[in-house]
Amino acid sequence: MPYLIIDMAVVKITVVKKLANFDLIDEYGKDVGAQCDLFNIGTEFIVKDLKMPEGFCSWAWADIQRDVAVLNFGGNFPWIKKGGTGIACCTDGFSPVVFKLERIEG
């Protein structure tokens, strides 16, 4: 049986926002910084073949990879104004990071 070869897109991930839930940090945190120190706003990563980009947080990747896959395979999110884009974030309750996802048409 022949294999189906799917032409995958490239997805750009851009860090757009870093949040800090100070009330939760104060009440529950132990040695927790105010914001994630792994990412800087404006930093961009390129995803090819659905592989986690070098230098990307593996915990954040676990949270957003399904959204990256949707865009990678040509899908769109009906709640997002512009096709080929998405907004996703990591699930760190103390200091979540928000990412803009963009399919790069080529």
Short description:
The chain is α+β, with helices and mostly antiparallel strands. It is built from two helices and four strands; from the N terminus they run βαβαββ. The chain has one domain.
Categorize the overall geometry.
elongated
Total strands: the figure is 4
From the alpha-carbon coordinates, what is the Rg to the nearest angstrom? Answer: 16 Å
Strand content: 15-25%
Computed structural class: alpha+beta
Number of domains: 1
Report strand order across the widest sheet: 2-1-4-3
The unreliable regions are none
Number of helices: 2
Q: Determine the fraction of residues in helical runs and give it as a percent range.
A: 10-25%
Oligomer: single chain
Q: What pattern of helices and strands is seen along the backbone? A: EHEHEE
Mean pLDDT: 91
Largest sheet: 4 strands, antiparallel
- Separation of the first and last Cα atoms: 29 Å
